[in-house]
Amino acid sequence: MIKKKYKILLKNKYFWISIFFFIWMSFFDSNSFMLHYKFRNSIQEMTSNRDFLRKKILLEGIQLKKLTTDSMYLEKLAREKFYMKKEDEDLFIISIKKKNRKNKNLTSHINK
């Protein structure tokens, strides 16, 4: 009984046309399912980039407003970020280097 159904199914031209249509639409057509999947992924990526850039624009706008209105913030930023100083000041830059715990432990054992 089951074999008979499969034989009828395999001889049916509509079945083969449907299979061919599905394969064609999946891989070869200009509106294939693969392209739709890629487009959906790129849309999601672009949306996340857009949201990130909107947040960044908002933060930059806040910082610009703060720079144009607050002279103390402008001076602080110039001193910290660009190492600017007044004419009668001396500038000392102290950098702190952090050592890894492993290296510190090795050197302490060697010194003992």
Task: Provide a compact summary of the structure.
With 112 residues, this protein is mainly α. It has helices spanning 2-11, 13-28, 33-69, 71-82, 101-111.
Computed structural class: mainly alpha
Rg, rounded, reads 34 Å
Biggest sheet overview: none
Which series of helices and strands comes N to C? HHHHH
Shape estimate: rod-shaped
Count, helices:
5
Low-confidence stretches: 107-112
Averaged pLDDT: 82
User: How many domain modules?
Assistant: 2
Q: Bin the helical content.
A: over 70%
Which range does the strand content fall in?
under 5%
What distance lies between the first and last C-alpha atoms, to the nearest angstrom?
88 Å
Number of strands: 0
Keywords: Membrane, Transmembrane, Transmembrane helix
Organism: Blattabacterium cuenoti STAT
InterPro entries: FtsL/DivIC (IPR007060)
Protein name: Septum formation initiator-like protein
What does this structure look like?
The protein is mainly alpha-helical. It is 77% helix and 0% strand. It folds into 2 domains: 1-31; 32-84. The protein has helices spanning 2-11, 13-28, 33-69, 71-82, 101-111. It is rod-shaped. Mean pLDDT is 82; it is low at 107-112. Keywords: Membrane, Transmembrane, Transmembrane helix.
